[in-house]
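With this grant's support, the team has encoded backbone shapes as discrete tokens. A representative record is reproduced below.
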Amino acid sequence: MSETALFTTLGQGVLEIPKLFNVEGWVAIVTGGGTGLGLITATALAENGAKVYITGRREEPLKNAVEGYKSLGNKGKGEIIAIQADVSNKEGIKKFVEEVQSKEKWVNVLINNHGIFPGATDINACEQTAEGLSKQMFEGETFEQWADVWRINTASYHFTAFAFLPLLAAAKTIGKFSEPGNIVNLASMSGITKTSQRGQFHYNAGKAATISLSHQQALEFARRGLNIRVNVVCPGYFPSGMTIIPNENNTGSDDHTQEFKTKWGIPFGRPGNAIDYAQCIFGIITNQYVTGAEFVIDGGWLFNQAF
């Protein structure tokens, strides 16, 4: 780009923050949007003018999410709409898509956020011998636990993505947006680390599979000219239903910061917060030149494991 062309572009204001991350008028889907990172995502999108459909298996968190957003009093911006659905199976996914389709002609972003952590067998809580480890890890878990993790945290992302594909493509063909809808899959730093984190083999392996799935989706959609971008977020420790972090509001005290550095292994000395996460999400969903990428947001936890 020549200097003349560059400054002509700059003169049009396209690099202003509100335009760089504009989601006003978008239709968004956030699965598992009633709590934790899903609720942060849904709220941030709605706050900036998107119509956000959230789903989950439990009615109460969904209802609380809708009422909580309304209590902010941001009239005239976006909205959060709850649809109770179980996207951990094909029947539930199909019903959910059909309900959205009855209300909308396109979807600008699908954020697969739902997931489970069924608990793990502590690999350190036994005699650290071949016999002790064998007994602890063989008898401590079931095939069903592994199957549930992979079914919900990985396989359901695959089926949800393909079920929404026509609505995502329609964002450009019908909605006349500059690109079709895009997909964000939620994985974890646990899918990248080489440690089992005290024995959560099933969860970490499942999140690694989600990262691989996201890469494959991104490639296959691009290869076929659909241009539906797929990226994957790998968060570290954020307060949520699956990660209970005591004293999550950092007081700034040296003792508090040191606890997160030593006990939790976070070099930055604190867990992530809503602002950190929302900034990450907006950067991903609005950047039309990024697909097949992993976004790690962990305060340096993975980096710290390299020492």
User: Anything to note?
Assistant: The radius of gyration is 21 Å. The longest strand covers residues 51-56.
